[in-house]
Amino acid sequence: MAATMQSGCDAEDIGKYAFRRALRPFSFPVALITCMIGILLAALQGPINPFAALLVLAGGLLLQAGVNLINDHADIRLLQGRPENAAAITAIRHNFKSGMLCFLLASAIGLHFVIQQGMGFLLLCVLGLAGALGYTVSPVNYKSRGLGVVLVFWLMGVLMMAGSALALGASLTPELLLQTVPVSLLVSLLLLSNELRDCERDRRDGLHTLTVRMGYAAGVRLYLSLLAGVYLVSALLLGLGLLPGALWLLPSLLLTLKPVRLLRVDADARQPLTPATARLLLGFGMLFCLALLNPWPIML
Q1: Per residue in 59-83, pLDDT tens?
Q2: What is the pTM of this model?
Q3: Could you name the CATH architecture of 180-292?
Q4: Where do the DSSP E strands lie in the chain?
Q5: To which CATH superfamily is domain 9-171 assigned?
Q6: How far is CA 99 from the centre of its chain?
Q7: Sign of CA dihedral 37, 64, 62, 278
C-alpha cells in the first residue's frame, strides 16, 4: 500500500518500490483464475480456439501486472520536496511506465478480440481499462476513496471472467454472470486482506481505504461475511444446476483456516494474511474450474 514518507526513504522504503515488489506476483492468481474460469464458461457454451484462449490468459496477466505497477503512483506527491526521496520517486515513475506498457500490450490483445467479436466487446475493454487506470491514478483514485473492495468485485472479478468468455464467442447470460460471483467475492476478499494487513499503517499515513474508514473490527466482520458468501453462493449455484460439481469445493475450506486465524493476531504478525488469502483464491479457483466440468463428487 502507499505510504507517506515523513522523514525520507530508508533502504527498506526504497525497496518496496523495487520493480519485483511493485509487480506483486502474489496477486497473479487473480488474473490466472478469473481468465481460466472465463475460458471454461465459454467452452461450456461451445468450441473455443486454443490460441485465442492463450491470448485471453496473456491479456489478463498483462492487465493485472499493469494495475500492480501503477499502484504506487499516488505516492509521488507525498515524496516530493525531499532530496532523499529521489530514488523512490524514480523507481515509482519507472514502474508506472512499465505498467502503461503492460496496458498497451493488453489493449493490443483486446483490439484483436474487438475485430473478432464486434463493438460491444470494445465497450467492455474500455470499461476494464478505465477501471484499471482509475484504481490509483488521480483524480479518480478510487482505492483512496474506500471503493477498491467494491469495484474490484466487478472489474477484476465479474468483468474479467465475463469478458474472457465473451472474447471467445460466448453469450452473456444471467447464468454466466451468476457463475462469476463466488470467485469475484474472493477477488474482493484478496484486496480486503491487503487493507486489513496494512490498516494501522494506512491510518497513520492518511490513506482512506475502506478498512480505515470502517475500522479494523468492522473490516474483519466484512472479511468473514464475504468468505461465507463465497460458499453460500456456491451452494446456490449447485441448487440451480449451474455448478454441478460444487462438492469439489469442500477441500478449499482447509485453506480458510490460516487467513481466519491471522485476522485475530497483532499487526506485526499479520503480514502473511494477504499471501494466505491469495492461496485460498488460487485453490478455490482451481477447484471451481473442476466443479464446472465434473459433477463426479455428487455421484458418489
Answers
A1: 999 988 988 888 777 777 767 777 7
A2: 0.84
A3: Up-down Bundle (1.20)
A4: none
A5: UbiA prenyltransferase (1.10.357.140)
A6: 16
A7: negative
